[in-house]
Design goal:
There is one protein chain. By secondary structure, the chain is α+β, with helices and mostly antiparallel strands. The protein contains 13 helices and 46 strands. It folds into four domains: about 375 residues, ATPase, nucleotide binding domain (Nucleotidyltransferase, domain 5, 2-Layer Sandwich); about 55 residues, no CATH class; about 110 residues, Beta-grasp domain (Ubiquitin-like (UB roll), Roll), CATH 3.10.20; about 100 residues, Ubiquitin-like (UB roll) (Roll). The strands form eleven sheets. The chain has a six-stranded mixed β-sheet with strand order 11-6-1-2-3-19, with helices on both faces. The chain has a five-stranded mixed β-sheet with strand order 14-13-12-17-18, with helices on both faces. A five-stranded mixed β-sheet has the order 21-20-28-25-26, covered by helices on one side. A hairpin with a 2-residue loop joins β31 and β32. The chain is rod-shaped, with a radius of gyration of 54 Å. It starts with a strand and ends with a strand.
Length: about 700
């Protein structure tokens, strides 16, 4: 069972129906009719989405109560206001296809619709709301139906109808608010024509005019097909407004007067001043005659424009066509016999069987036509797409849609397609509020027919979309180091980077990789000379006899030649230099083995240096008391030394100032000079006289 809904300018008609395939009949299970609150629609266009949705929801609820079933999908038709039509033709090589299936024929039709779309200007702002097949051909020969046929070349030609996006999307908004999804959408004249001008009659040049409340929709058949669609934005409401203006009544009273024209010769009513009034049918007809004449004139002009001439016959449906004198005006202006223009009612539709109260008026032809084309799947531009193995009917605009458009139509919300971002972190940095956005969520992984795709990938009828669950954004991981600004300075010409001293919630931060939490307070202070260089020593390098030495020495920091105090705060782009202080002396690094020789002093053996050495740098002898020079290359040379008597005095414990006289003997011989040479093993005696 399906739910068909005609959302007219004045009334809504909901129908529950099934298709009896054995007898090829439409079985009407139940229906419900409701008038709009106020004038929520004008000329077939939805003006108040909320009020129309409220009425749709009431129709839906009443039919749910009657049937006991939950209604979630609906077939609808849209009035042809601002209608544009276009013809598209598509050919297909079927030599390898075998017998043509329903799906192949359907896809050929939709390809033809796509080509028709490309012929119209601004197709991006138009929706295809239905189409009619003009003809099929097989291997160059016309054929009534392609399904089940086999050949080499198949061709289809369609007449596609288009409406502005805002018209269609207003209807989609109404259905969404009512908890309904459309499974079939078509054009109102296509729906009505399916019943009053069935396929067997289309060889005749017949015009179908659906005169509703807001629009008069037109469809024309000839040579077996529908050759054109049209629309006139004038209908029953214009007649009602003429009555309202002339008799000083509100729109509802005027509508009641109009409907009673077919039932009463004298009509009573109250005007807006609360006066009871009475008027004859003839007087009302005189009031509305100019309006009927104008509407009929516009309809006939549109028929001639589409058909090129007067048709063989006109079939009028819709509540607006019931006004006395209307069909006669059409016949008069087309210059065809009155018998060739008739008002078609639901009561004489052969394909319809009622299991409920019978719908009889001409105003019910379009609602019944909606369920007719929906059950037979005729003229709809919906396409079947599988999403995660579930079938969805998607409304294509004629050209291929992308994945995102398809998923949104299928009822996916963005939070089902893109993971939620993680919460932001807010903290204070040096008195300024800082906000770090949370990590973006990952979009769901998508495949079309097994191939990797994304939201912009095109989708064709019959495609299979697989979509995984999106991933939410991970928690924000923010460190102190990421939010503070490093300080760049130069040390001895080389660029350096340091970081300010950081306090978090008043406590000094030792590790800059420490995480920041929401609501924390961060403060920074520029580091001082002492903070950066407190453990800093300068290295000096030198060699002694080609042996390298590296020595750390104390330093001071200098800026522009001035030694900086320890509490000086480093600034960005500062140019600093280090200067070494307390340099070591050369002697501290001399550890030279000197050859010694024995002599005897007053009978005691002592050792005297037989060699001496010189330290050379840059070609000169260096005093070993000098400070080490950075980068110097020192050379030590040893030379033989002549021993002299004076060399032994370092081994005597004497106070020279207390000595009055002395005698010195070498190997028993008395000597007078301290410069007297001595030989290894010499026996030296020093005698001190009192």
């Amino acid at each position: 069972m399906i739910f068909g809904l005609d959302i007219g300018t004045r009334t809504l008609v909901g129908i529950l129906a099934d298709y009896d395939e054995e007898n090829e009949k439409i079985v009407i299970r139940d229906f419900y009719e409701l008038e709009h609150e106020n004038r929520a629609m004008l000329d077939g266009q939805i003006h108040d989405v909320g009020k129309v949705a409220k009425s749709v929801n009431k129709v839906k609820q009443m039919l749910e109560e009657k049937s006991g079933e939950k209604l979630s999908e609906v077939a609808i038709a849209i009035a042809g206001r601002f209608l544009i039509s276009s013809i598209g033709t598509y050919e297909l090589d079927i030599s390898t296809q075998g017998f043509l299936s329903e799906d192949i024929v359907r896809n050929m039709e939709l390809e033809a619709v796509k080509l028709a779309t490309e012929k119209i200007q601004y197709y991006e702002s138009m929706y295809c709301v239905g189409y009619s097949v003009l003809y099929y051909s097989l291997d160059g020969q016309w054929i009534k139906h392609l399904e089940g046929q086999k050949g080499n070349q198949a061709k289809v030609k369609v007449l596609a109808a288009f409406l502005p996006r805002n018209v269609v999307e207003a209807m989609m908004s109404v259905l969404e608010r009512s908890g309904l999804k459309p499974f079939h959408i078509t054009l109102e004249p296509i729906a009505a024509t399916s019943l009053v001008v069935p396929e067997d009659l289309r060889s005749l040049n017949i015009v179908m005019v659906d005169v509703g409340a807001g629009t008069s929709d037109i469809a024309i058949s000839n040579n077996g097909v529908i050759i054109g669609y049209g629309m006139v934005p004038l209908a029953g409401d214009e007649i009602t407004e003429a009555i309202s203006e002339s008799l000083l009544v509100d729109f509802k009273v005027a509508e009641k007067i109009k409907r009673e024209l077919s039932e009463k010769e004298t009509i009573t009513y109250k005007d807006i001043l609360d006066n009871s009034q009475e008027i004859s049918k003839e007087e009302v007809l005189k009031i509305i005659n100019p309006t009927i004449d104008n509407i009929a004139d516009k309809i006939v002009k549109e028929i001639i424009n589409l058909n090129g001439r007067s048709p063989s016959a006109v079939m009028v449906v819709g509540g607006g066509g019931k006004v006395p004198g209307f069909i006669e005006k059409i016949a008069e202006k087309l210059q065809i016999p009155k018998s060739r223009v008739s008002l078609k009612t639901a009561s004489n539709l052969e394909k319809i069987v009622f299991e409920c109260l019978k719908l009889e008026g001409s105003e019910y032809v379009t609602p019944l036509g909606i369920v007719n084309v929906a059950l037979k799947k005729e003229g709809s531009v919906f396409n079947n797409i599988k999403i995660n193995h579930q079938n969805f009917n998607i409304l294509f605009m004629g050209k291929d849609m992308n994945v995102l458009q398809v998923l949104l139509q299928a009822g996916y919300s963005m939070d089902r397609l893109v993971g939620a971002p993680s919460p932001a972190i807010g903290f204070e940095l040096n008195g300024k509020l800082m906000i770090v956005k949370g990590e973006k969520g990952r979009t769901a992984k998508i495949r079309i027919n097994g191939d990797i795709a994304d939201f912009n990938s095109p989708v064709k009828p019959g495609d299979k979309i697989e979509i995984e669950e999106p991933e939410n954004g991970g928690p924000v991981s923010l460190t102190i180091k990421q939010v503070i600004t490093p300080i760049k300075y130069y040390l001895n010409g080389e660029p350096k980077i340091t970081y300010p001293i950081v306090f978090k919630n008043g406590k000094k931060v030792e590790d800059l990789e420490e995480k920041i939490k929401d609501g924390e307070i961060i403060q920074t202070v520029s580091p001082t000379i002492e903070d950066i260089f407190k453990n800093s020593n300068e290295k000096i390098y030198f060699t002694i006899n080609n042996l390298p030495y590296e020595v750390s020495v104390g330093t001071v920091i200098v800026k522009n030649g001035e030694i900086l105090e320890k509490d000086y705060k480093i600034k960005n782009e500062d140019s600093l230099e280090t200067k070494a202080i307390e340099l070591p002396k050369l002697k501290d690094f001399l550890n030279i083995e000197i050859e010694k020789t024995k002599v005897f002093l007053n009978g005691k053996e002592i050792l005297l240096n037989k060699e001496e050495f010189n330290v050379m740098f840059d070609g000169r002898v260096i005093n070993i008391e000098e400070e080490i020079m950075n980068g110097a290359n020192y050379t030590i040379k040893k030379v033989q030394k002549d021993l002299q008597l004076i060399d032994i005095f370092n081994h005597l414990s004497l106070n020279v100032n207390e000595i009055k006289s002395y005698e010195i003997y070498i190997n028993g011989e008395k000597v007078e000079s301290f410069l007297q040479k001595i030989n290894p093993g010499a026996d030296v005696k020093v005698l001190i006289n009192d």
